[in-house]
């Protein structure tokens, strides 16, 4: 996969579509004359969303199309207006959408289907809408994998799964964070000698710092310390790091007083902490793959006039963490769930992890 630096990527996603835009015209779907595949992203400020955009545009280029990006800037109404313009005026070969609002985007996705424009949804579900394919992250599995790593780390420390575990489960409005917490805690609760402390402390870095400070203070007052922290996202991890430093609990794995840390996503700053031995494990999501694989599936099926399967497997041509994916059926149509991977210091430099791209 071609690596694009953060500056170049931001320039790419800075494209916007106005109401009077014109683009490649012609029929859509099978036999479309358009050579453009458009991606609608939620924002262009977070590195993870820039990387997702790169996945779509690199995939489009590999398939012989121009990859274009339109930016909603965290505004559901703006995203819907931009998508309406794509459907009514641009009429590209295909559209890939990361919905800012899973409910409000359903109407325009319906119009895309009526216009026979092949459409994929990635990262966030689109509720009450039929699309050709949804490519999503398996957030429950991410949490379960983190939970099993926590059990392994505690067993290595004590000879059995016991200790004090802090789960900073994130915003209650985030379905992804809910599912990660669900998966993590379902594993931890199987072990009665593990004390689980669930605390709202993410994704804001400062809130994570404050929340963990309070937990550590409470444990000190009870004559205890904490053994492991799990966060639902890397931003929260950076906050937890500040708390551990403030409380003299920031030590490398293997050193006395080390508090184990498990993080999620694959941000470069946290991957460096994994490589340096301070963060034990990172549960990495396939950020390049979510958009790239969606683009490849659109090209292989609806852009050729074929329905996307609801069973069986698909092997993408691009280089992603997921080498083969499985189709399943869902209320929104065919769905692919991308499996996460867990990396420690030995695997944190994998070039397919989005956080390792030049930033």
UniProtKB/TrEMBL annotation:
Homology family: Belongs to the bacterial solute-binding protein 2 family.
Species, as recorded: Raineyella fluvialis
Keyword Signal (UniProt): yes
Subcellular location: Cell envelope
Annotated GO MF terms: carbohydrate binding
Key words, A-Z: Signal
Name recorded for this polypeptide: Substrate-binding domain-containing protein
Span of the signal peptide: 1-19
A cellular component term, taken from the record's GO annotations: cell envelope
Domain spans labelled Periplasmic binding protein: 40-301
